[in-house]
Backbone:
């Protein structure tokens, strides 16, 4: 009976998904957005306010929803506005929570109350226009539904249709509301350079928690992602509301619990040092803020976001291409790049099975250390006496693509570019120009600087057979002055910088469709869904120490998919002075887009043999890792053993990675129960190095799911991978 009901429900939802994801009841003035995974609803109250009504598991009946209503004041200290969940509140009237939009008119009047005007549904998109109750200041709320992932992308366009200029003092993408109640927890990613994406989970209480960047770029310290759960969710169970903001500059997500048991999340452009002038007729579009819901825990929340990234955010036709195995010479040579040295490394890398050879920092200008040369993007003739083409041809003949490191937004004061254009860096005249890593930030908000950078990269990509740029950005902003524009426009630098960065990337991709780009910012300083529209992968962290990486990668995977997670095998001892075996390092890195960053000149024959085998193995499992579903089975935060499983979409292949930190008292690691396999099918399981305990090599999906596997992982930093193939 239950089974039939379930089937019916699924049928109704798939029917609805294929028919209509957005419905409107003109009688009640209610919109219902529904996918297989979740529903979202809002409505217009009799006085014209757009109110949030519902976000949670899928609904199929719009008539179930109440119409939006005006509440009553509880007291003169608790106005009704504070009890109503306004979908996109302006700052005006008695509203004291975080507003979505705050404006100042030229005459100093700052009151803004937004009411519903009209809406338009186009397939999976909905636009709702709000307008101030007096002035022609409009906010158009955009909703784009991604039914396959049950995710809604929300953003707004703020339009000044008055004849006077206005200044935006806060422009958010969206406000999200949890069902009223308390006991919620928030999960978020924090860190610093070389220790990015550490997962935190903590209770939400009254007051506000702000996740943000004031750094100019996305930042290592906090990542624009959140998950809120009902207080009892786990990896594979429980209600989780989650979101990710697509912006690579100063961003802000506030998580707030009002005195009325209402948790609300507001996110968009950071209000810190923010002002954006809109002349008559001008508009500003805010970043996209994606949100989703699942009742199947944090693991499913991640998988839905990962699906969205793979299917709808990553750019271009090449998104279907698996990430190649890469070699990067940075940790081997640092700035000591030479044609002969690179050729020697390329020869060794090719024998290992590497597919993309990347020359990192040090190939250009007078770049012999980090004191000079940034900005001078000409090949250094001493290091490359026969030009760069000689190396590129050599690399191509070895069967590998060629990639190049660039850091286009930066300049060293000791460079020809800075000597010619000292005014091109962001600066406050007469104030210090603070250097970090001996470099200054070019003011990309200036269109001449933007065009110059585009030309530099376009020339490199046109002149050489470059398949891939590692686009780096190695410092945060300071003294963000833009003296060339009027004082009331100068704070726009934060936004215009990012828009011009996106513009360069978009133009480059359009002109060079085969070019791939990695977003790097001293490791994972620019990892977000905004830049993902233009890049193919992220440099996860400058910390390549395999044990630290387990936690960095666990955090990364909360919000981002494995294909985007660049992961290198490097030499030991690494950070923390730690030594881990080469196989352990490989298996950690094989959980993402595998790269090798070691000094191959120091490797032994045994290292080469193991590496060749592991790279071969990676190529076998690559599509399962890069395009499959990830199940985080055992977390490095809470267990001596870490286990992650990747399952191909058709459930015919899976791979389990397992790592043991330190065995104590001769204990075995815990049984590892697999998830996501077909219970009725038979699978062959095989540990790559014979670490499976048990007589059989064939099991049913039901046994693997319910009983699990016993591995033999001993001593310190032991590891294995188990390959799972469908037999019948
Ligand atoms: C940054 C990157 C590194 C490397 C260096 C080069 O730190 O994250 O991978 O490219 O710059 O200077």
Residues:
């Amino acid at each position: 009976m239950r089974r039939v009901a379930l089937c019916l429900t699924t049928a109704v939802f798939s029917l609805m998904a294929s028919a209509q994801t957005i419905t409107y009841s003109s009688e009640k003035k209610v919109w219902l957005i529904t996918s297989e995974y979740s529903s979202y609803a809002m409505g217009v109250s009799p006085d014209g306010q757009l109110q949030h009504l519902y976000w949670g598991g899928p609904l199929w009946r719009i008539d179930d929803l109440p119409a939006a209503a005006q509440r009553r004041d509880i007291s003169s200290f608790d106005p009704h506005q504070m009890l109503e969940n306004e979908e996109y509140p302006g700052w005006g009237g008695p509203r004291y929570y975080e507003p979505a939009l705050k404006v100042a008119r030229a005459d100093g009047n700052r009151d803004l109350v937004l009411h519903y005007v009209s809406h338009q549904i186009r397939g999976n998109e909905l636009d709702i226009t709000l307008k101030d109750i007096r002035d022609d200041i409009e906010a158009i709320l955009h909703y784009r539904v991604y039914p396959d992932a049950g995710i809604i992308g929300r953003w707004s366009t703020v339009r000044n249709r008055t004849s006077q200029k206005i200044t935006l003092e806060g422009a958010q993408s969206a406000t999200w509301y949890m069902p009223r109640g308390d006991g919620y927890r928030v999960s978020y990613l924090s860190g610093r350079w070389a220790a990015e994406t550490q997962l935190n989970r903590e209770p939400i209480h009254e007051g506000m928690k702000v996740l943000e960047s004031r750094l100019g770029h996305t930042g290592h310290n906090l990542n624009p992602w959140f998950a809120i759960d009902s207080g009892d969710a786990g990896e594979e169970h429980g209600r989780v509301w989650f979101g990710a903001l697509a912006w690579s500059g100063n961003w802000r997500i506030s998580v707030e619990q009002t005195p009325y048991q209402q948790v609300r999340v507001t996110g968009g452009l950071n209000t810190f040092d923010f002002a954006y002038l809109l002349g008559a007729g001008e508009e500003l579009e805010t970043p996209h803020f994606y949100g989703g819901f699942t009742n199947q825990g944090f693991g499913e929340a991640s998988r839905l976001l990962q699906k969205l990234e793979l299917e709808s955010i990553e750019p271009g036709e090449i998104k279907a291409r698996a990430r190649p195995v890469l070699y990067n010479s940075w940790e081997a040579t640092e700035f000591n790049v030479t044609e002969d040295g690179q050729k020697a490394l390329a020869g060794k890398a090719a024998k290992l099975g590497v597919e993309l050879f990347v020359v990192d920092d040090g190939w250009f200008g007078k770049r012999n250390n980090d004191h000079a040369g940034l900005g001078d993007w000409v090949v250094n003739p001493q290091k490359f006496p026969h030009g760069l083409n000689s190396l590129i041809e050599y690399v191509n003949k070895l069967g590998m693509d060629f990639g190049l490191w660039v850091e286009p937004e930066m300049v060293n004061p000791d460079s020809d570019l800075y000597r010619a254009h000292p005014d091109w860096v962001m600066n406050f005249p007469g104030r210090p120009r603070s250097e970090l890593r001996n470099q200054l930030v070019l003011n990309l908000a200036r269109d001449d600087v933007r065009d110059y950078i585009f030309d530099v990269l376009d020339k490199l990509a046109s002149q050489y057979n470059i398949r891939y740029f590692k686009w780096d950005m190695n410092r945060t902003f300071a003294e963000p002055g833009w003296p060339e524009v009027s004082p009331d426009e100068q704070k726009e630098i934060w936004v215009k910088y990012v828009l011009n960065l996106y513009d360069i990337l978009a133009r480059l991709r359009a002109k060079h469709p085969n070019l791939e780009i990695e977003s790097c910012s001293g490791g994972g300083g620019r990892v977000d869904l905004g830049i993902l529209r233009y890049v193919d992968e992220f440099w996860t962290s400058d910390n390549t120490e395999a044990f630290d990486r387990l936690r960095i990668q666990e955090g990364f995977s909360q919000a981002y998919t494995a294909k985007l997670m660049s992961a290198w095998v490097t030499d030991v001892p690494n950070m923390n002075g730690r030594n881990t075996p080469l196989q352990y390092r490989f298996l950690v890195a094989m959980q993402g887009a595998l790269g090798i960053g070691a000094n191959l000149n120091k490797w032994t024959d045994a290292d080469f043999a193991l590496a060749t085998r592991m790279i071969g193995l990676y190529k076998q499992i690559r599509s399962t890792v890069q395009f499959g579903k990830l199940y985080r089975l055992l977390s490095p935060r809470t267990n001596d053993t870490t286990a992650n499983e990747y399952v191909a979409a058709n459930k015919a292949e899976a791979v389990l990675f397992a790592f043991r930190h330190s065995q104590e008292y001769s204990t075995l690691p815990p049984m590892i129960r697999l998830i996501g396999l077909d219970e009725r099918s038979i699978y062959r399981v095989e540990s790559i190095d014979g670490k499976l305990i048990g007589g059989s090599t064939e099991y049913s999906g039901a046994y693997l799911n319910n009983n699990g596997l016993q591995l033999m992982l001993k001593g310190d930093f032991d590891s294995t991978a188990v390959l799972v193939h469908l037999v019948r």
